[in-house]
Design a protein that fits this description.
- It contains 22 helices and no strands.
- The protein is mostly helical.
- The protein has one domain.
- Helix 4 packs parallel to helix 7, helix 7 runs antiparallel to helix 8 and helix 7 packs parallel to helix 10.
Length: about 400
């Protein structure tokens, strides 16, 4: 098989795996998700009001009401953008690593991971838009468009404040690695580190925006705003009781939520069913990152990446969705690996990584994730074996070739 055909096959297998994984848990937007599309700035500046404000303006101009069908179509557009950005990331990552077996299997592990399952299950939520904006922001940094990257990050914060832990650390990691590139290429004087860092100063503005989001609820009349939001959402009969819960959350400050729930953080971090389903993918991708770029386990860069990857777990201190939050770690690990692919030279791979990746791929294919609202994943074991047969067979082929070839021949 020619190189171009092999690469096309790998990308098609990735798309197939991604599609099957999405099909395992995708559903219609629930009431909680639909309510977020109805929040806007008509009662003043509030958290998560950007999407609803844009939707309300479009609905007013087009002269159609916000109905479940309209929210469904809007959610489908956002989710399509999310999947498109993931495809861009995987394709760029594969090209940078010349479609080598370790990268191919790492991509397949991500495409079958609990993060993709949970993202499909959260269809209609704002998580997909957050990650799409994060990836677009990183792409802008690669192209030197720092103000555009800053605007996208601020927009993501206005979509959902959790971006400060989901996407913003990845943006800062990208800036740090790009800065390291600038410094390595500038041998002029001792001031080179300052010149390398100073151009990234606009990326500090999203942190200012987050601080404003944090103090805004303190400056508002909590009872009045809660009543206004509840009355507005009550006009939409398809929302139900979720309208009041959303109103209560919108009028509660982050510090208040932190005070109420911080004591439960240790329990949320050690839920065994979540660790068993999510940890293998995250660990495998992290090990791939260290192996592919020759990063020592306890080096400063490795520790920095580990901190960035685990930042989403802090959300446990203010929210209860343990399965949802834990799956974010897989996304952070994968996006970090992609950023390293774009900013650092490749190294020889670890021979142990390939069989580990095959094992994690099997766990992702046949394991079951605890979904929200008491729902369960689709497809029986037999159905999964048939649907995932192409990537599983290709993984077995790569493993066979790895152990059949001699070290001199095994350059891929």
């Amino acid at each position: 098989m020619s190189v171009s055909r092999r690469r096309a096959l790998v990308f098609m297998l990735t798309l197939w795996t991604l599609g099957i994984t999405v099909a395992r848990a995708i559903r219609l937007p629930n009431d909680f998700a639909e309510a977020h599309w109805l929040l806007d700035y008509r009662f003043g500046f509030i958290k998560r009001g950007l999407v609803g404000s844009v939707a309300s303006v479009v609905a007013h101009v087009a002269r159609f009401p916000m109905t479940p069908r309209v929210i469904l179509v809007s959610s489908a557009l956002v989710f399509s953008l999310f999947l498109a950005t993931l495809c861009v990331v995987t394709l760029r990552m594969l090209r940078r690593r010349t479609f080598d077996p370790d990268t191919t299997l790492t991509v397949l592990v991500f495409a079958s991971s609990p993060f993709v399952v949970m993202s499909a299950h959260l269809f209609g939520y704002l998580d997909a838009l957050i990650y799409a904006l994060c990836i677009l922001s990183i792409l802008c940094i690669f192209r030197g468009r720092l103000w555009m990257a800053t605007a996208l990050s601020i927009g993501a914060l206005l979509v959902h404040e959790s971006y400060i832990l989901l996407g913003y650390p990845l943006v800062l990691l990208t800036a740090m690695l790009m800065c390291s590139q600038d410094r390595s290429g500038d041998q002029s004087s001792e001031s080179a580190p300052w010149r390398a860092w100073i151009r990234f100063w606009p990326l500090g503005l999203p942190l200012v925006a987050f601080l404003l989001l944090t103090i805004t609820p303190v400056l508002r009349d909590e009872h009045l705003l809660r009543t206004q939001l509840t009355d507005r959402l009550s006009h939409y009969k398809f929302i139900g009781i979720e309208g009041y819960e959303i109103s209560a959350w919108e009028t509660s400050g982050i510090l208040e939520k932190l005070r109420q729930q911080i004591v439960y953080l240790p329990l949320m971090l050690v839920k065994m069913d979540v660790l068993i389903s999510v940890a293998p993918s995250a660990i495998l991708i992290f090990l791939y990152t260290l192996s592919a770029f020759g990063i020592r386990l306890f080096s400063r860069l490795a520790i920095t990446i580990a901190l960035v990857v685990h930042c989403p777990l802090i959300i446990h201190a203010v929210a209860w969705d343990s399965e949802r939050i834990a799956s974010y770690v897989v996304a952070s690990a994968f996006i970090s690996a992609w950023v390293l692919c774009e900013t650092r030279a490749r190294r020889c791979s670890d021979p142990v990584l390939l069989p580990l990746a095959v094992g994690v791929l099997l766990l992702n294919v046949f394991g079951r994730l605890s979904l929200m609202d008491g729902e369960v994943e689709r497809f029986t074991v037999v159905q999964r074996a048939l649907l995932y047969a192409p990537p599983l067979l290709y993984a077995a082929l790569l493993l066979f070739r790895r152990y059949r070839a001699s070290p001199e021949v095994d350059s891929r």
